[in-house]
Amino acid sequence: MAIVEAKGLVKHYGDVVALDGLDLEVQEGQILGLLGPNGAGKTTAVSILTTLLIPDAGSAMVAGVNVLEDRMEVRRRIGLSGQYAAVDEHLTGFENLDMVGRLYHLGKEQSRKRARELLERFDLAFAADRPVKTYSGGMRRRLDLAGALVAKSPVLFLDEPTTGLDPRSRVELWDIIKDLVASGSTLLLTTQYLEEADLLADDIMVIDNGREIAHGTSEQLKSTFGGDTVEFVLDNSDQLGRAVELLGEVAAGDIRSAQETATVNVPVSNGAASLTRALRILDDAEIPLSDVQLRRPTLDDVFLQLTGHVAERGETTDQEVSV
Amino acid sequence: MSLRSALGDGMVIAKRNVIKIKRVPEVLVFVLISPIMFVLLFAYVFGDSISVPGLSYREFLMGGIFAQTVIFGATFTGAGLAEDMQKGIIDRFRSLPMSRSAVVFGRTASDVIYNVLSLIIMALTGLVVGWRVNNGIGSMLLGFALLLLFAYAVSWVMAFVGLIVPSVEVINNAAFLVIFPLTFISNAFVPSDNLPGPLKTFAEWNPVSSLTQAARELFGNIPAGAPEPDAWPLQNPVVYTLIWVGIILVVFVPLSVNQYKRVKSR
């Protein structure tokens, strides 16, 4: 059953089109990864679904409530962790979570209990009584994520939860998100990191310029948009031309070769069988190899093919991707 | 949204702001030192060179300084909101099932603390330089209550400005541009009778004048022989000031709450 359902969302900021008729669905207990470069419309979509923005057109239901008609009721059923850690830095970790609990109307005792539970679970108990301004970036994000979980809301929205984090903090946050999903939460996650979507999401929607450009599981996207490749490294680059000519027989697409590194990349339709055949051909032609490998497609390949530009990598931080 | 949960949410926000007052004592130091500075500067720089018919300038002055300082104190409300708007925390608030007015109500409520503290400090400094309360404790408390109430109303104006302007710096400059003329074209520091024609009329109908006049009357700082003012607002300063408090709240509470609903964090 779809617990988040949006139809035909449109949002303009002046002349800029942020969303251009986006449809999306998240099934109960699943993670939808909304993947796209900066400016693709991810945050706008999340802002509309969490009642922070009103769309110019379109409709949305979250947990059975119409987002445009009963915003307060939607807010009772969602948890949001935004792109920038939404915590008060002068308050302690405990005070931040307790405040959020009181604003969800949990009641004094319940709110405090929940705050302590979450600090424990997110490995922040040691810093519970320190003002947040003394926290590291990773600790702030964990606290922010904890804020989204205070009311045990059935639907969670995480907008770029790991943007700008160092690799170690990112891995820690991924573990937390995996636990969340294992415990049955429904989650809409936006990210510009391919490996994040690959690792966490059941269902991935690639968006660019406010529109869906591909949709499916990670495996489906890879097999649709990027096949296997066999990469050969020759002993001697003089043989490169001959090798490319001979390998045409097994190739499922355009062969790429590089003279300097003496490599030949052959797209193939059936990895293992094609590899065996190719090796036999090269052996018969007495072309010696120094290395060979079968490459499975990555989401990078998919993304590149779909959007025509390279996705932002996990190692880099918050830079703009030119579109 | 019931009134009870609206009040409860406002209190949660106010508590958060009070915690911040404790954690960022630098602001408090400024709040407490500037009134001392004002009292001493006016008392000693102007105190001996300005004469007011029928009364001592230091006695006359304190009402004006009280009024000006609490009105400036209201600027904190605008600055606090403008600062919140620049941070992600406002998106958190807006995604929570809390009362839409709680953030602004909580802010105006917690900022009353600044004004209570600065009134105490000013009164003590005033006593040191020779100011006296001559009308009994009850009147004195009414005087302070009226000052706080007027400042509370002004803090809603500042809240609205804080929600429109792009940054904290702008709110401080905007506040100075409005508050300085308002307090100087009034009877806060000089008797309005001395002002030229149009300025005199403005000063007589300026609520800062009536607030000052009310404070002076309630603190007993107007001696028996002092000339009676001609303008109605200054003859009935408490009533006229309360009318302004009402008008400001009726206009700016809905405006600010509405603006808060529309604004997205920057």
Can you tell me about this structure?
The complex is a heterodimer of chains A (323) and B (266). Chain A is α/β, with parallel strands linked by helices and 323 residues long. Chain A has two domains: 2-223, Rossmann fold (3-Layer(aba) Sandwich); 227-296, Alpha-Beta Plaits (2-Layer Sandwich), CATH 3.30.70. Chain A contains eleven helices and 14 strands. Chain A has helices spanning 42-49, 71-76, 93-103, 108-121, 137-149, 167-182, 194-200, 218-225, 240-247, 271-284, 299-307; strands at residues 2-13, 16-27, 31-35, 57-62, 65-66, 78-81, 155-159, 186-191, 203-208, 211-216, 228-234, 256-258, 263-268, 289-295. In chain A, α6 links the parallel β7 and β8. In chain A, α3 packs across α4 (108-121), α5 packs parallel to α6 (167-182) and α8 (218-225) crosses α11. Residues 313-323 of chain A have low confidence and may be disordered. By secondary structure, chain B is mostly helical. Chain B has one domain (3-262). The model of chain B has no long low-confidence stretch (mean pLDDT 88). The interface between A and B is medium-sized, with 30 and 25 residues.
